[in-house]
Structures are given as structure tokens and as C-alpha cells.
Amino acid sequence: MKTYKIIWTENATEQYEQNLKYLIEEWNWGVMRNFIAKVEAFLSHLQTFPEMGMKYKNTCYRRFVVIEPISIFYRFENDYIFIVSVWNNHQKPIVF
After folding, report:
1. What is the CATH number of domain 5-88?
2. Is the pTM of this model over 0.70?
3. For 40-77, b where at least 16 C-beta lie within 10 A, e where not — what string?
4. Where are the domains positioned within the chain?
5. Cα→Cα distances 70→2, 5, 63, 79, Å
6. CA 20 to 30 Å from 12, out of 30, 80, 86, 88?
7. Over the stretch 30-59, which tens digit does the pLDDT of each residue have?
């Protein structure tokens, strides 16, 4: 079974860290730890099943809702999966 290499963009890394802060401030450490575990599980599955996220509108991107307010947007090509955004769905709609 093919395994894809996951690459985080700088923007996605910054958004991930911002969302961790948001979860601690607005919820608690338990919610944040749950989110981290779900992201890790998602990434583990994504490496072998890159089409698991839903296609996002008419773009090359896919969306996976990690927890209710936060989605991961990514695209894949060749042997790579690019994590492009970790989006808090309470923000303005994302535009690619």
C-alpha cells in the first residue's frame, strides 16, 4: 500500500498552534489533548488514504473536520500531501 509524505505549510503550522491556544483558553487542556490525538490519528490514516477528506467546492483541496469548530484543509499530488490550513470554522469562510 502506498504511503504519502505529509508536509505542513508554514501557514498551517501557525494556524495549528493558534488553534491549540484557542482550545486551552476557550475550553480546557482535556479538549486540547483530545484535538491533538484526533489530528494525529487523522494524519496516520491520511498517509495511506489521501482521499478520505471531502472535496472542497471546485478546488483541488480536501477538508476533514477534526472536531466541530476546526477543519484541516489539504491537497495531494504525486507522493506528497500538503496540509495547507487548520481552520477554525467560526472565522470568515476560507478562500483558496
Report:
1. 3.30.2310.20
2. yes
3. eebbeebeeebeebeebeeeebbbbebeebbbbbbbbe
4. 5-88
5. 28, 22, 10, 26
6. 30
7. 999 999 999 999 999 999 999 999 999 999
